[in-house]
Amino acid sequence: MRNKILLGLVLVFAVMQLFTIEKVKYEEPTANDLVNYEPLISEVTELLKETCLNCHSNQITYPWYSEAAPVSWWIADHIEEGREHLNFSEWGNYSSGKKSHKAEESWEEIEEEEMPLPSYVFAHSEADLSEKEREILIQFFKTLEAKYKTKG
Questions:
Q1: In sequence order, what are the residues at sequence separation of 6 or more whose Cβ sits closer than 8 angstroms to the Cβ of residue 139?
Q2: What single DSSP character describes residue 36?
Q3: What distance in Å separates the CA atoms of residue 110 and residue 93, rounded to the nearest whole number?
């Protein structure tokens, strides 16, 4: 009986592999990307690359385990949802009001330790922010919020 259950699970897993995800094609940063649009210090750029841009930009790099369903479906959903909510590659296209709002949401999410997602940090230890790194990003986004709040 146990062998039949195991065989059934293996077959289900094998069939799941037939349903692949559509990966976001990596695009080189343009003038509209946050990292090119705003003056950034290198420390902020590195923190954004380690914690934000893999789900919130057009510079997606997929880990090796993104090839296997159902993990691939979960990753694809996170990326789609992340880019739908905020895409730093589109930063230059946002209105001043939207930039201010997105910057506010960003620092709040970081401050409340909602971002980066705990599941992302689990798989990407480099995204585990120290208090100092968290504060650097919070201050960066607060500065952006204030900058665009006055323009809006």
A1: 107
A2: H
A3: 23
Q: Is 60 exposed, middle or buried (0-12, 13-18, 19+ CB in 10 A)?
A: buried
Task: Report the C-alpha gap between 50 and 53 in whole angstroms.
Answer: 7
Residue 140 C-alpha from the chain's centroid = 17
Q: Is 137 helix (H, G, I), strand (E, B) or coil?
A: helix
User: Can you give the pLDDT at residue 77?
Assistant: 86
Report the residue count for the chain. 152
Backbone angles phi, psi at 61, to 5 degrees: -120, 125
Tell me the pTM: 0.83
Q: Tokens for 35? A: 């990292």
| Residue 98 to residue 79: CA distance in whole angstroms | 20
Q: What is the mean pLDDT of residues 32-58?
A: 93
The pLDDT confidence band at residue 40, using thresholds 50, 70 and 90, is: confident
